[in-house]
């Protein structure tokens, strides 16, 4: 929907004009998966797809939540504290209002219309997009005085404390701090970051949606989080570290016997090796060695598949095909897994052919078609009107 169409929709729902329009993108993670909550380095980027919010104040001290994409609506009276009810989408913005209220920022009644083109459960961070979008809107409208890093941290608190998912900071940081044509290299422990020009020459970043949705809170995400905490505790018997990602491959190899559980050991090995891959991926990107970058993507997926066990038949089918396609030099699942999306580096001139062939291959193996589109790396959260 265009902004003009959304303005018409807003007037239909609320019988008044929207006062503000805000936008927040989704994200893909190029490499560095399941290490954001282990103090690791990640390499996400914001994309052009995302969520738009139209909003106007009201004098009734009521928060009205409407969406173009969801039938569920709710009206919530202004309160001194808020709590999650059910699993509906509007819990995310309610969680943001809860955080602003806790911070002593007086948020008055609002009429809010959300519209997004990020497939829900696709692993492109629709929840982080809503969180940071709502935070940015409230920050602008009520003089919250927060910078974008603080908005990302606020979004993470909503995800962890309000929604109950033990995620790291990557998703919220990427959609808040994204920069056109650049990947963000982020240290999830210190929040030190740098922008890396994502110059891939004759290639395009393809996103392939498995169309198998998953809800993270209900998935094995929290189980993996706890497995990593177990591994860390055991390794801390010999190593003075705060996070798994502080451990080198060499030190891990010397001390892996402390774990004495093959599953927990595999989880830790993925984390330690994935952090190393991110560092190598940075070097490859800086030196313009896109082929090596692609090889690291494949290696990342193999680790997520066999050691961390968060892939699945659908994601593996996409990567399996990509490895046989001559003009594709790298592919991997992106996001938490258990469904969602994969990404691939494909020659621009071959993208249409790749799209057709992977669609047929996937349909034959899985029984339904994937979504395939090329992605543009874009700016983070922003005010539109």
Automatic annotation (TrEMBL):
The record marks 27 as: Transition state stabilizer. Keywords: ATP-binding, Carbohydrate metabolism, Cytoplasm, Galactose metabolism, Kinase, Magnesium, Metal-binding, Nucleotide-binding, Transferase. Substrate binds at residues 33-36, 221. Residues 282-363 form the GHMP kinase C-terminal domain. It holds the Pfam family GHMP_kinases_N. It catalyses: alpha-D-galactose + ATP = alpha-D-galactose 1-phosphate + ADP + H(+). Its EC number is 2.7.1.6. NCBIfam families: gal_kin, PRK05322.1. HAMAP family: Galactokinase. This is Galactokinase. It comes from Niabella ginsengisoli.
